Amino acid sequence: MTTLKTKVLPAEGHLAATSSGARARHTPLMPSAGMRRVWLTLLGWGIALIIFFPILWMVLTGFKTEAAAIADPSLIFTPTLESYVAVQARADYFKFAMNSVVVAFGSTLLALLIAIPAAYAMAFLPTRRTKATLLWMLSTKMLPPVGVLVPIYLIFRDLGLLDTRSGLIIVYTLMNLPIVVWMLYTFFKDLPRDILEAGRMDGASTFQEVVYLLLPLTLPGIASTGLLSVILSWNEAFWSLNLTSSNAAPLTAYIASFSSPEGLFWAKLSAASTMAIAPILIFGWLTQKQMVRGLTFGAVK
Amino acid sequence: MATLQLHDIVKRFDDTEVIKGVDLEVNDREFVVFVGPSGCGKSTLLRMIAGLESATSGDILIDGVRMNEVGPAERGLAMVFQSYALYPHMTVEDNMGFSLKLAGVPKEERRRKVREAASILQLEPLLERKPKALSGGQRQRVAIGRAIVRNPSIFLFDEPLSNLDAALRVQMRIELARLHEELDATMIYVTHDQIEAMTMADKIVVLQGGVVEQVGSPMELYHHPRNRFVAGFIGSPKMNFLEVERVSAAATGVEVRLPDGDTCTVPVDGSGLDDDALTLGIRPEHLQLDPQGPLSGRIEVIERLGGVTSLYVRMQDTLVTMSADGNVDSRVGDSLRFGFERDCAHLFDGEGLALPSLARHPLAGLNRQDNRAPAAAGRL
Ligand SMILES: Nc1ncnc2c1ncn2[C@@H]1O[C@H](COP(=O)(O)OP(=O)(O)OP(=O)(O)O)[C@@H](O)[C@H]1O
Ligand SMILES: [Mg+2]
Q: Could you identify the atom of ligand 1 that is nearest to the CA of residue B44?
């Protein structure tokens, strides 16, 4: 999420800058307002840079030699792929990446499949207890995961789910379900009931109502919910480190495997981390419009 | 095409009873209007007929068949919502054809039926547009078109005109009346606007607090309201109510003392009446300026509408509305005397029930069909 925000901020800063330019042309006698805009824009970029800096530094370090990485910090160096080669020689990146993709998208798909009917029922057929149920679901997110580590580990061991992709998919689905249901609920709630009722008058079954009306009309919301779920699953480390070892280990486990035994090999660790976050960073960047649109859908409509 | 009967319909939401035992008969091809103040349960009643809400108890019969457990689509009704409820992601054509698509009607036939309905409503040039690109009036027509395409046995309308501006509302009112003639369908129409009720209905159902106060033709409700509520609700400007005292009561008339001390006899059946405090109801259009009149007051506000002038006259603690001639030259602050037509006055007992008039108004049985020229009426 942090990485995503940093990508969004410059875009807004850019917007502010252009509109301040347009404003200045129309009202040339108001330099103070224009100046304010400039300062705000600079401030925005400054904050964005500060937030983004550690990531930038990590990416740069990945292209350094191990010696350059521990030497005095410097922006000037000869880039090398040495660390990447070393990293790839030790562990197959693509295997881990594949696990991440399967687990993140699989759990998101599963969560949406469960959450859409649930949110539909809560939004359109509420009972007296619906609000309380929603709050209760969200409150389960306040429980520290480590508190249920032992029972879940034991259950997974007995069911043979340890170090399997399906096991991780199940955990991630359960982990994200409250947020996914909650978000979908708020998006569905924004849809006027009349439209679904008109559909029912027109002869739509509940399934047709969902497929022909609800889903197309709340697609931006569903998409941004799905994106968030993918990102949360991709970045999840606690469960993946504890429940997988090799077969189903995703990229978070891949990074971790570089940090523990080889503690101070900064360049390799940075290269591994860069490769681990690159897909989700690119994914987030490509979908940021969709994401922001979905998240602000209710507000701007 | 269809009749509708409601038998003792009750609707409870949790513990609050919203509809408290409604009985109603809607005849084939009738235009029935549910009217009443906000929150009286009009929409709830309509939604129960539509099947969008279940009745807590009672029977809903369409063409004599109990429909309580039948789904909305299978009841053969179509509903037009106040918000139009068009499908925003579909074109006008797809909006109108959605029900046919769900019913598996082949594309060509669907297209033909949609165009047919579109031509009735002059919607052909808009068929490719999305609802976003339509004006309020056009959206309204699409919503009606969507209902027509389904060829329903009964049309249901829930305040379809309340989002339109005044001029468009008048235009759509006329268009709906025309549509009713053209389609020869049974229509049930919900509104809180008594003018819409008066102008469009064959039969008006006045609701208050989940109870039917009176059912009748517009002229019947206007001339023979059953109680104070209906008397005050139907007619614009509102009927004036004066507190009066009973002097004598007989089957041939009731003599009452007016606020100014004069007495007068109202031609209503007073047999068995034993309340002393009564309410005299007089419509603004039945009050006349009259130097010898039994009532007097001071003008507080004057509203000149051109053809008619509304005078708001203070009589002790009541403000009386009088519809006077457009050319009346009274000023605010003037004192004036006025009288009223005895035959048009209404008298209500202590419970607010109207005492029956001695003579039925000649137009009380008239409905909209009767306004047609005999040739047109003979068409049926
Ligand atoms: N789903 C519901 N749950 C609880 N109470 C409801 C529900 N729907 C309606 N009511 C209540 O039932 C009563 C009647 O509502 P209804 O919508 O039928 O009124 P209405 O006559 O259509 O009013 P309006 O002219 O404002 O549309 C209201 O008091 C309302 O608060
Ligand atoms: Mg209503």
A: 18
Q: What is the ipTM of this complex?
A: 0.85
β-strand partners of B208: B211
Nearest to B206 by CA among B185, B187, B227, B186: B227
Beta bridge partners of residue B60, listed in sequence order: B6
Q: Which of B52, B71, B85 sits opposite A192 (nearest CB)?
A: B85
Structurally, chain A folds into a number of domains equal to 2
Per-residue burial over A172-203, b = 16 or more CB atoms within 10 Å of its CB, e = otherwise? bbbbbbbbbbbbbbbbbeebeebbbbbbbbbb
pLDDT at B375 over 70: no
Contacts with B68 (C-beta within 8 Å, 6 or more apart), sequence order? B54, B55, B59, B60
Atom of ligand 1 nearest to the CA of B40: 21
Q: Which among A192, A202, A216 has CB closest to B98?
A: A202
Give the residue from A125, A128, A190, A202 with the most B CB atoms within 10 Å of its CB, the best one to mutate: A202
Cβ-based neighbours of A300, under 8 Å, separated by 6 or more = none
Q: What is the CATH number of the domain that holds B154?
A: 3.40.50.300
The predicted-structure confidence for B93-117, as pLDDT tens digits, reads as follows 999 999 999 999 999 999 999 999 9
pLDDT over 70 for what percent of chain B? Answer: 96
Pair B158, B84 in one domain = yes
- Please give the structure tokens belonging to residue A18: 């252009």
Residue B264 shares a structural domain with residue B215: no
| Interval A63-100: pLDDT, tens | 988 888 878 777 778 888 888 988 888 888 899 999 99
Q: Do A194 and B85 touch (CB under 8 A)?
A: yes
> What residues flank ligand 1, with Cβ below 6 Å?
B 13, 18, 36, 38-44, 192
- Whether residue B241 sits in one domain with residue B222: no
Q: Give Dmax (Cα) for chain A.
A: 75
- Report how far residue A10's alpha carbon sits from residue A46's, in angstroms, rounded to the nearest whole number: 10
pLDDT of residue B129: 95
- CA-nearest residue to A207 within chain B is B102
Quote the mean pLDDT of chain B.
91
* pLDDT (tens digit per residue) in B138-174: 999 999 999 999 999 999 999 999 888 888 889 889 9
Cα–Cα distance for residue pair A48/A9, rounded to 1 Å: 6
Q: How confident is the model at residue A31 (pLDDT cuts 50, 70, 90)?
A: low
Residues of B in contact with A200 (CB under 8 A): 52, 71-73
Question: Which residues, including other chains, have CB under 8 Å from residue B300's CB and lie 6 or more apart?
Answer: B312, B313, B314, B319, B332
pLDDT of residue A165: 94
Q: Which helix (H) or strand (E) holds B280?
A: strand B277-282
Share of chain A above pLDDT 70, in %: 85
Could you tell me whether strands B57-62 and B4-13 are parallel, antiparallel, or unpaired per DSSP bridges? antiparallel
Let me know whether B91 and B168 are in one domain.
Answer: yes
Domain assignment of residue B86, given as a range: 4-228
What are the chain A neighbours of B73 within 8 Å (beta carbons)? 200-204
Are the Cβ atoms of A201 and B78 closer than 8 angstroms?
yes
Cα B268 to Cα B250: distance, rounded to the nearest angstrom: 9
Phi-psi region of B106 (alpha: psi -120 to 50; beta: other; left: phi over 0): beta
The predicted pLDDT at position A20 comes to 43
Same domain membership, residue A23 and residue A109: no
Evaluate if residue A51 carries a pLDDT over 50: yes
Q: Report whether pLDDT(B270) > 50.
A: yes
What is the C-alpha end-to-end distance of chain B, expressed in Å? Answer: 13
Q: Which structure tokens are listed for A24?
A: 């200045």
Q: B253-257 and B65-66 as β-strands: parallel, antiparallel, unpaired?
A: unpaired
Question: What is the residue with the minimal CA distance to atom 14 of ligand 1?
Answer: B41
